[in-house]
Fold this protein.
Amino acid sequence: MLDSVKITRRQSEIRQELATLSGKEKPSEDEVRSMEALDAEYRTNETRFRAALTAEDTERREAGAELETRSDAEWAEVMAGFELRQVALALDEGRQLDGRTQEVVSELRSHGGYRGVPVPWEALEQRAGETVASGTPNPIRTAPIIERLFAGSVAARMGGQMVNVGVGEIEFPVTTSDVQAGWANGELANVPGPTVYETVDRPLKPDNNLGVQMRISRKTLKQSGPGLEQAVRRDMGGAIEEALDRAVFLGSGAAGEPTGLFAGAAAWGITETDVSAAADWAAFRSEVVQFINGNAATGPGDVRALIRPEIWDGMDASYITGTALTEYDRMMTALGGIVMSHNSLEAPTGSPAGSSAVLTTTAGGVAPFFVGAWGGIDLIRDPYSDAQSGALRVTALATMDVTVSRSVQTRILTGLQ
């Protein structure tokens, strides 16, 4: 028996005796001395108990470490040394077992009674060089799930800010008036009259619910083990992120979708420029000039661009005469960042094929647009719908909305060929 268990039992006996003695109103001198002795022994046992736990914990750690260090490969090596030939000779002529065979048999006997010689199940497996009627066995070990690929968060790389909302709605007041300062025309003249300071509200409303539902078969549950739940969470999170990126820029504002930058450009006052020409650095440079003139940027390094991969393909193949630089090289050197996405912008259409691009800047520490998320992703398990087949059904729900801050921080180019 462990020392800590023995000490615990003795402490319980001491408490019983002390309870009996302390209940007496007028204990005798012998009983008082007995209480003092028991109290001293109890305090001593507390110290012994802590020491015993420390020693036993060390022993447990050493034993556990020894067990943990024996890997599957080491166990397979031990079982590979088990010889059925020795078992047959022991039964036939009483030969003594030796080596790993004797170790395995002794271990099996210590865990159960056997009238004959115990043989582990692993000894019945086919080994290298042995054949069976149907051919060489091919055991399969299922590796962790290889998950799908999702586009990275374009909204974040374009300067968007995620706003977490608990309940209700949130509004961002944005100044729209053009207040002017003026000089007094003369010693006794007045300065120009007051100018109205006006604002417009950019609300985020919990009207748009995004969700993804998944059915997980019983085979998948058994094949993948406990890591499956995390894989499903990541899969759903990637799908939600991809759908949100598309909604931020291409959301129609109808059929449950939030209003994206393209659909809401007119209402929000975002400037749209129809290039209707081959994409080059000059087209983007003109927009950078407008950012600077609108006090939204101090230089091209403050501006980010979102383009389609096809635009990069065309610009990177267009060399500047007499140099080894392409139009894309010039733009990449000047701008603060370039993001390519096939998910957040529509595919080129028309003849010649035309595409769109978005330019944003962060001015005064304010993001060009806000993405509101109410709470977190709500992951719900439905234990009833697929109970008969043993499958698992989970649903992820997220409530989100999109709005812009100052319209001068975003510009849209269309007709880039």
Notes: The longest helix spans residues 29-69.
